[in-house]
């Protein structure tokens, strides 16, 4: 997979290093000469250019990329890069960094963003996830389809504890993708039983989140759905 990263700061270089270790091709783009530190990520391709300029993206051959990551520290730049990548070059997957949470509402498919990653929101979500049992925590927002990656730790008193996955009437537009049980990561099947303390990860439409939380948190003997 070929990935172009706009922004060769600490965030961009860190992402590049991870992707290279996983066998992907990576191109780092930055307009600041001081950011071009080839020795820090020697396996990557480097381009000194303004990622907001069409001529620069032509030089980067963005049409050959499977993924573009807008990882600069400027939200305006990240939005422009995302829009150009999607509309001008047809890049299949565009991921954008959100620096200011107040701008998060802009990072959607209208600006070419498939996945928006807000570091402040993600950090707060991880804190919530670590201390919350029975509360739905939003970990990541997907622009297409208005879906989110959400997590809930099944409480001891949940009516679903001991129930097989296939017997649960899940809300529409939700999908259970992973069960984390202790140190194990389980791909759920219909025969798997839910246990108290399980961390359940769902992809769910935002409109269904409250319904999903009510279902998972309903106490034994409750009729809530």
From TrEMBL:
GO terms for biological process: monoatomic ion transmembrane transport. Pfam families: TrkA_C (PF02080), TrkA_N (PF02254). Residues 137-218 form the RCK C-terminal domain. The keyword rRNA-binding does not apply. Residues 1-117 form the RCK N-terminal domain. It comes from the Bacteria. Keywords: Ion channel, Ion transport, NAD, Potassium, Potassium transport, Transport. The keyword Transport applies. This is Trk system potassium uptake protein TrkA. It comes from Streptomyces plicatus. The lineage of its organism: Bacteria, Bacillati, Actinomycetota, Actinomycetes, Kitasatosporales.
């Amino acid at each position: 997979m070929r990935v172009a990263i706009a922004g060769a700061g600490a965030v961009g270089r860190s992402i590049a290093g991870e992707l290279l270790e996983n066998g992907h091709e990576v191109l780092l783009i930055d307009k600041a000469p001081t950011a071009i530190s080839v020795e820090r990520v020697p396996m990557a391709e480097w381009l000194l250019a303004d990622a907001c300029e069409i001529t620069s993206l032509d030089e980067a051959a963005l049409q050959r990329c499977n993924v573009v990551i807008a990882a600069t520290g400027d939200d305006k730049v990240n939005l422009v890069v995302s829009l150009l990548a999607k509309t001008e070059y047809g890049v299949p997957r565009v991921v954008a960094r959100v620096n200011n949470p107040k701008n998060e509402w802009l990072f959607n498919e209208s600006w070419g963003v498939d996945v928006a990653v807000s570091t402040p929101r993600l950090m707060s979500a991880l804190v919530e996830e670590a201390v919350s049992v029975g509360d739905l925590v939003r970990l990541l927002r997907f622009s297409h389809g208005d879906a989110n990656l959400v997590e809930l730790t099944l409480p001891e008193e949940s009516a679903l504890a001991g129930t097989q996955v296939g017997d649960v009437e899940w809300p529409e537009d939700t999908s259970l993708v992973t069960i984390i049980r202790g140190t194990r990561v389980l791909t759920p099947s219909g025969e798997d039983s839910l246990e108290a303390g399980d961390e359940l990860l769902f992809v769910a439409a935002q409109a269904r989140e409250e319904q999903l939380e009510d279902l998972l948190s309903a106490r034994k003997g409750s009729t809530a759905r």
